[in-house]
Amino acid sequence: MNLQKNASLKKNILSKIAECRICLEVVRPPVCQCEAGHVVCKSCFDEMDLKECSICNRPVSSAKNVVLEQLLEGISSQTPTAHKNNESMEFKTEVCVDINFRLNFRDVDVVSFFNGQAYFYYKHFVDARKEKLYWAFQFIGLKCKADSFYYEFEVYGGPIRKFKVSELCYNDTTNIEDIFELEKCVVMSFTTARNFVNNDGKLPIRFRIKKVRNDH
Hints:
By secondary structure, the chain is α+β, with helices and mostly antiparallel strands. It contains 6 helices and 12 strands. It has 2 domains: 3-74, 2-Layer Sandwich (Herpes Virus-1), CATH 3.30.40.10; 93-211, Apoptosis, Tumor Necrosis Factor Receptor Associated Protein 2, Chain A (Sandwich), CATH 2.60.210. The protein starts with a helix and ends in a 5-residue tail after the last strand. Its EC number is 2.3.2.27.
């Protein structure tokens, strides 16, 4: 087995035993866990203000999983860093999108978050007449549950330049044309988008879906 395959195998093993239940990446020390042993990144634990595990609903503790941390540290030099620069860990999905600014285009996909407990439509529209790009996420399920989620969307050009939008999720029965028309979604002009197109002629985007915190 060559080094590349060996590293790939270790990454696959890590993804099975050390996947954060929030960002769905390999956890990075310090590691927190619930009473049943399901693990989360400390940064995800703090950001989401977790009280219960999303898998088993048992209490989540800020106490560190020392054994797993030692395992991760022992092989981290042989596998890619899941949370490079403490940045990519925040986003479950990153992709470079091909944009044809001359033609209308629509794309629909289904993405899952929270370890497969919630599914969302990813909808993208290129409007050549209005010279605008649109993105929206719709929760697949009841409207009352859709109100519990929002998404953060980012178009980026290097470590500094970013175009960021946070927006509420609507459920899948809401007419997507109304969402686009009222611009209750991510909207980007062609002029702005062209400033973020990379050397390969693609637009780098990343996003995550989060639960609305109820502090009351």
